[in-house]
């Protein structure tokens, strides 16, 4: 996509939206990478802000300590209830920034400008905010909606390949639960993903699926649970790696979770054996995944038993079958 063209559309539109509003101050939150790669594009688009705070990149920043730093900074800058926070980053910045804004002075307005593929199709949509706590993913959080969202694929030009893969995993998840046609397209395109041109439709379709689901069920009472497909096992794997201080991306963990939960779907007779094999082969061929040692299986299951979606100690997972449809609250 032509750089100037996108700057002329999404970000510029946001610049004019922002100039029409009367916020008392505008504070941008980034991580150190998005400060380097994405903030200059925001400035180039003429988006005005008063101050900028940057946190270290990565999941390790989704902590109460970092929230304290952010809140302290906002307090020093005298952000009042009429201020606006602009979260410019991947899912870590949108989750943490949304959470901090939703609590600060009992809630101030915020905008998400997702800069990773994963945040564009998933994390920045739906109003879930949160941080990790005591080695548990997203244990503390809130539901809070941004007042505006800007999805500009221009940011993907600097996103590392491993992070593109993380986003592709969520696109895959959305296809598997709700759009067989998108799954067929993904199967055809294989591992190739050109973020600059042809795959804009993947991003739009995947984002649209999540938007539609959360519109129908904003507080995850019902069909929103389908979006957890791959995540019960995925989060457990991520927690074990986090505890062992071994790096794994959220996408890698969820990709492994998708394999595990597709297998479960097939075992339950919901998904055909052929579709399970297609999914497994697609995941293994498209994503660079770490090997999980058998010795950690028991800990993964242990984490699954503590999943926050469980009820009375029973694991409740979202499964699929046939591709394009889902089953929630499966024991
Ligand atoms: P991330 O925010 O850590 O971003 C991944 C890496 O890419 C980071 O190093 C970041 O600095 C870098 N980066 C981001 N944009 C860049 C750009 N344009 N150019 C160069 N580098 C860039 O991780 P993520 O994968 O975006 O998000 C994962 C997080 O999202 C997890 O914490 C997960 O729990 C959360 N999540 C939340 C929801 C939700 O509904 N709230 C849904 C899915 C995931």
How does this structure look, described?
With 331 residues, the chain is an alpha/beta fold. 49% of the residues lie in helices and 15% in strands. It has helices spanning 3-19, 32-37, 39-44, 64-76, 91-103, 117-123, 161-178, 180-189, 200-216, 231-243, 250-267, 273-286, 297-305; strands at 26-31, 51-55, 84-89, 109-114, 128-133, 136-143, 148-149, 317-320, 326-330. Strands 2-1-3-4-7 form a 5-stranded parallel beta sheet. Strands 5-6 form a two-stranded antiparallel sheet. A two-stranded antiparallel sheet has the order 8-9. Strand 3 (84-89), helix 5 and strand 4 form a beta-alpha-beta unit. The protein is globular, with a radius of gyration of 19 Å. 46% of the residues are buried. The mean pLDDT is 92. The protein binds nicotinamide-adenine-dinucleotide (NAD). Nicotinamide-adenine-dinucleotide is lined by residues 31, 33-34, 37-38, 57-59, 62, 89-93, 95, 115-116, 118-119, 122-123, 126, 128, 137-138, 155, 158-159, 163, 166, 250.
Summarize, please.
With 331 residues, the protein is of the alpha/beta class.
Write down the overall geometry.
globular
Query: What is the H/E order?
Result: HEHHEHEHEHEEEHHHHHHHEE
State the share of residues found in helices, binned by percent.
Answer: 40-55%
Largest sheet: 5 strands, parallel
Tell me the Rg in angstroms: 19 Å
């Amino acid at each position: 996509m032509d750089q100037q063209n996108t700057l002329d559309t999404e970000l510029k539109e946001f610049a004019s939206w922002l100039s029409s509003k009367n916020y008392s101050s505008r504070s941008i939150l980034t991580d150190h990478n998005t400060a380097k790669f994405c903030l200059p594009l925001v400035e180039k688009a003429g988006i005005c802000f008063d101050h900028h705070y940057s946190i270290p990149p990565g999941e390790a920043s989704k902590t109460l300590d970092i929230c304290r730093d952010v809140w302290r900074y906002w307090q020093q800058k005298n952000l009042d209830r009429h201020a606006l926070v602009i979260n410019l980053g991947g899912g870590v910045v949108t989750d943490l920034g949304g959470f901090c804004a939703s609590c600060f002075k009992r809630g101030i307005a915020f905008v998400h400008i997702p800069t990773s593929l994963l945040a564009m199709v998933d994390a920045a949509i739906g109003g879930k905010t949160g941080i990790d706590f005591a080695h548990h993913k997203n244990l503390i959080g809130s539901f809070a909606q941004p007042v505006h969202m800007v999805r500009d694929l221009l940011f993907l030009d600097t996103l590392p390949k491993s992070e593109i893969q993380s986003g592709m995993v969520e696109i895959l998840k959305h296809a598997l639960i709700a759009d067989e046609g998108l799954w067929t397209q993904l199967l055809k395109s294989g591992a190739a993903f050109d973020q600059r041109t042809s795959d804009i439709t993947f991003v739009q379709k995947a984002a649209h699926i999540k938007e539609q689901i959360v519109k129908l069920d904003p507080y995850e009472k019902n069909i929103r649970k389908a979006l957890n497909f791959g995540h019960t096992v995925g989060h457990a794997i991520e927690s074990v790696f986090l505890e062992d201080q071994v790096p794994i991306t959220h996408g890698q963990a969820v990709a492994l979770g998708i394999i595990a939960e597709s297998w479960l779907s097939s075992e339950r007779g919901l998904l055909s054996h052929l579709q399970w094999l297609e999914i497994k082969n697609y995941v293994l061929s498209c994503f660079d995944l770490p090997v999980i040692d058998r010795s950690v299986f028991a800990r993964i299951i242990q984490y699954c038993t503590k999943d926050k979606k469980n009820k009375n100690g029973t694991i409740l997972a979202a499964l699929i079958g046939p591709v394009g449809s889902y089953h929630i609250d499966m024991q």
